[in-house]
Amino acid sequence: MIWYPYEQMKTMKAPYEIVDAEGPYLYTKDAKLLDSISSWWSVIYGYRQPQITAAICKQAEKFSHVMLGGLTHKPVEELSEKLASWLPGDLDYCFFSDSGSVAVEVALKMALQYYVNRGETGRKTILALEHAYHGDTFKTMAAGDDEDYHFILQVYGENPYVRHIPTEIPALEDVFARCHEELNCFIVEPLLQGAGGMRMYDIAFLQRARELCDEYGVLLIFDEVATGFGRTGHRFVADVVLPDILVLGKGLTGGHIGHAVTVANKKVFDAFYDEAPEKALMHGPTFMGNALACAAAKASIELFDQLNVPARVAHIEEVARRELGGFTDPRIREVRIMGGCACIEVYDAKLLAGYQQFAYERGVFARPFLTYLYAMVPYILTDEELIHIFSVMKEWFRRG
Ligand SMILES: *Cc1c(COP(=O)(O)O)cnc(C)c1O
Hints:
Elements: E1 20-22, E2 25-27, E3 32-35, H1 38-41, H2 50-60, H3 74-86, E4 93-97, H4 100-117, E5 125-129, H5 138-143, H6 147-150, E6 162-165, H7 169-179, E7 183-188, E8 192-193, E9 199-200, H8 203-216, E10 219-223, E11 245-248, E12 260-264, H9 266-270, H10 291-306, H11 309-324, E13 332-338, E14 341-346, H12 355-360, E15 364-365, E16 372-375, H13 383-398
Helix pairs in contact: 2-10, 3-10, 7-8, 11-13
The chain binds pyridoxal-5'-phosphate (PLP).
Pyridoxal-5'-phosphate is lined by residues 99-101, 104, 133-135, 189, 194-195, 223, 225-226, 249-250.
């Protein structure tokens, strides 16, 4: 039997069985559903996207996979070259992984070993944000700050090698002043914290973080697994504030195949580049640089530019502000909108029980969690489709 994610198997409601998917639509045997959350925020151009699908098929006719240990191939070379030229600054060194969690693990390992390779073994601590989510593997859970997902870590007690701060400049300045000698990196989901509750914060915080990281020689890591590829309205937040290490996942292949990448700048790469074998990065996911995934990612990046995604996301944000911006209800704590993310936070999680079925009956697939009712739509929606999603969200409150 299938063991489903984040569910109590004994009480979970039966999942909807999808028999087909195309564009922004999921099809069950008897329903057509507009996907309002892009399959965990990854299917940014919709399902069965023709260019991405063609790129995968074309590559599959040659080979689907060869390992990257001692072998290389065109799709992975082309993708890494494309990323190096497309990403800002000297974020040029691409380490591929099969999932976002693993790519974050790699980033954290890089940051730790960066200092070990330079002989600074005292920098053991990760600085992260309150309400952070960086994945479900062990070190990413520790960097995360989300007991709803990671309560299991409580059995270990307090983790001595991670500190969490709120997204406030005074707290940031304080922790750097007090603890900079022990810090190896500061990892953030820039501007938009997704799984921690669609929390949004100001770019000034990241600008100050960049200054402090430079001043005290701490590596700045952007986990853009969720925010990358346009979600915040920026192509990448890294275009505005440049990190030392950038992690991409989810939208990388247009959500067509799982893949992720940890991209380091020259300074980080150079700390590993040496005659000494022990200075190498000892990591290698079996399916890293998978040829189908690389072909899909390359097509996805080309599509991003062709579709002018930032302009589309700006339009989605404009419609969201118009439709949801002023929406109030005594049971709503806050409505938050940024780029292609709109979230209604309610006071009581119980209020959202039944929403999924309510939306289903109105032709929308949604998956609220905790106190968050949100939309992270594929970028290809028409205005009519977009407005329908927001209307269903509002109707839930109006029905009393
Ligand atoms: C989803 C997510 C991850 C984990 O990615 P997986 O592919 O699910 O392992 C890491 N960081 C952020 C910010 C995410 O949203």
